[in-house]
Amino acid sequence: MDGFLRHDRELEAAEAAPGLLTIDLAALVRNHQALAARVAPAACAAVVKADAYGLGAVPVTRALQAAGCRHFFVAQSGEADALLPVLDAGSRIYVLNGLLPGAEAACAARGIVPVINSLEQLDRWTETAREAGRRLPALLQFDTGMSRLGLPLDSLGEVVALVSAVPLDILFVMTHLASADEPDHVQNGEQRAALARVRDAFPDIPISFANSGGVFLGAAFHGALVRPGIATYGGAPVSGRANPMEPVVRLDIAVVQTRTVPAGARIGYGGAYVTPAPRRLATLAAGYADGIPRALSDRGAVFFEGVRLPILGRVSMDSMTVDISALPEGTLTLGSRVEFIGPHQTLEEIAAQAGTIAYEILTRLGQRYRRIHR
Ligand SMILES: *Cc1c(COP(=O)(O)O)cnc(C)c1O
């Protein structure tokens, strides 16, 4: 009875939500398994930073862990903290940015594994191990040409000497590909050659190399542990090619008002769009505060049962207006829902129209949607 009531209330709340963000955990797991199969015998981690690219780090981590994933990457130590309660004893969590001063002792005590990106971070983690009186795990990242994070390659000799003398267990040496989504980019080969120098300097330590794009560059880019993010979430790993991943995310937005306007009506802020003829309009309950890019003003669209409904005028903070003249009158009413991300409009299509990438669309999805994990 209780369970039934709770379910009922959940359904009601879902009905009342301005947007429904449906996350298909079964599809997510199948994506992970497809990537894992592609790179075997290398292991396949999951990058769950930024709340698992906006999809919910806790349910995503739970689902992937249940499917056998044991390696989880976040960007910041606070994100690792939040996932500790759901991690099994056999799973590890790594912090890509490494640790900011002051976070070391707590991370050591909690078993969080930092990626060491600089000599300062190496010093501080070594000091933490000495104070704790035990060896601590770490990953060691080298910068192979992205100029973002990692130890410089010209410090390789120095780092080899340092690492051999400190109470740290280096689990993997790693680097990050800057252009893996473009298979023909010259940088891929350059970074592979640079990483070969690191591998030769640390012959006994396994390598972590590929992100999503790197998984599709072939075995030479895999190492012993790959770190896909976007592909696990259904995003295209390689730009300009058919996306082999299954979609994971669907976003439906509620209609809050419909109206018919004559020719010459101004729509939204700035009155920027003026109707050339009478139009039927629907106002939708999500705007840029919910992650609908403002760049989609006058160019994006939503769909209803396959019919394209163009966004007219500027996207507001909490709403936007679409042209529903293509639908039979009365099709959409208060509370109807239209598709923003789904079978008729992929993440990549939305991103292209907004002049951005699928990663940004996902990670900006707002907190006001109701998230449903299936
Ligand atoms: C974000 C990130 C990844 C995952 O990248 P995708 O392109 O989403 O697969 C892997 N490694 C590092 C270092 C990252 O910062």
Automatic annotation (TrEMBL):
The modification N6-(pyridoxal phosphate)lysine is found at residue 49. Substrate binds at residues 148, 317. The active site is at 49 (proton acceptor), 269 (proton acceptor). Its cofactor is pyridoxal 5'-phosphate. Belongs to the alanine racemase family. Catalyzes the interconversion of L-alanine and D-alanine. May also act on other amino acids. HAMAP family: Ala_racemase. NCBIfam families: alr. This is Alanine racemase.
